[in-house]
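Anyone up for a design puzzle?
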């Protein structure tokens, strides 16, 4: 049996207009993309960034807001609403394309308030042996 190699397209770039239409464009383009021979689409981060509808998705604010809650000055993300996102994914899958969602889990930014929990400090190169006891630290958190 011969192995067939797929072709993935990155369907975003840094300078996409802030018009909330990317997900709708993906949905409408699915047949053309499949006909062109693409087998997978890599989509940008779908969650709300700290700059609201202006954020490209790498300034993570709320991983669970895919464009459905009024936060950071908008309901939609830069790319559209949650429903538009789901419609885009369904359209790609209906046309036989795999979907890869970009997610950046360690870029937490834009919290609303400072919290002061306790944390144990560890050396950067040794996560097994603490370098001190519990101490107060400042961290940002979301107000929900």
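Challenge accepted. My sequence:
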């Amino acid at each position: 049996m011969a192995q067939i190699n797929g072709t993935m397209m990155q369907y975003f770039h840094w300078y996409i207009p802030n018009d909330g239409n990317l997900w709708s464009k993906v949905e409408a383009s699915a047949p053309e993309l499949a006909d062109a021979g693409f087998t997978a689409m890599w989509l940008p981060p779908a969650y709300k960034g700290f700059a609201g509808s202006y954020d490209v998705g790498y300034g993570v604010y709320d991983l669970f807001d895919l464009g459905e809650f009024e936060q950071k000055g908008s309901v939609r993300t830069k790319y559209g609403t949650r429903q538009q996102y789901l419609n885009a994914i369904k359209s790609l899958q209906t046309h036989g394309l795999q979907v890869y969602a970009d997610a950046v889990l360690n870029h937490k930014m834009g919290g609303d308030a400072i919290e002061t929990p306790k944390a144990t400090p560890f050396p950067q190169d040794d996560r097994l042996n603490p370098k001190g006891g519990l101490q107060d630290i400042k961290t940002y958190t979301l107000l929900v």
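A detail worth pointing out: The chain has two domains: 8-108, 111-144.
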